[in-house]
Amino acid sequence: MNFDQSDWVVTALMAILGISVLIAIAVIAKTIANDARERKASATRLAEEEGNSAPLNPPEAPAKPKPEAKVKPAEEPAHKDDEYEDDGLVAAAEVYLTYDLKEQAISSLEKHLLTNPTDKKALDLLKKTEASV
Q1: Segment 99-120, tens digit of pLDDT
Q2: Do 83 and 114 meet the contact criterion of CB atoms below 8 Å apart?
Q3: Is the whole model's pTM more than 0.70, yes or no?
Q4: Is residue 24 scored above 90 in pLDDT?
């Protein structure tokens, strides 16, 4: 058998290439597996943080139900500025009027009056705004 030196070099390079491809495939497969495991752990952690009742990986042993607390937290007295939850809409309407944005002020006041129809301040402000349009 008569081999040239170049045949041996080509064979060696092909072997190195084959081994490199096999290593690359193994690294890619391992990376994909690790990413899937991390995503699953992240999804489980997020589900637990959000308080979902059905986590992605239920525990093997059933969890014991916690006894319900019968003590109610004391309610804080209402602050004098907390008369309405939607006071922000009235304040926003006043800001809109400062910048002559009457349509936005009217829509803000109407939203506020949907939940608080007896608010005198908002009613008066709405009447004044509609009269000036």
Answers
A1: 888 999 999 889 988 988 888 9
A2: no
A3: no
A4: yes
Backbone conformation region of residue 100, classed left if phi is above 0, alpha if psi is from -120 to 50, else beta: left
Per mean pLDDT, which range of 4-13, 47-56, 65-74, 108-117 is the poorest? 65-74
User: 3-state secondary structure string, the chain?
Assistant: CCCCHHHHHHHHHHHHHHHHHHHHHHHHHHHHHHHHHHHHHHHHHHHHHHCCCCCCCCCCCCCCCCCCCCCCCCCCCCCCCCCCCCHHHHHHHHHHHHCCCHHHHHHHHHHHHHHCCCCHHHHHHHHHHHHHC
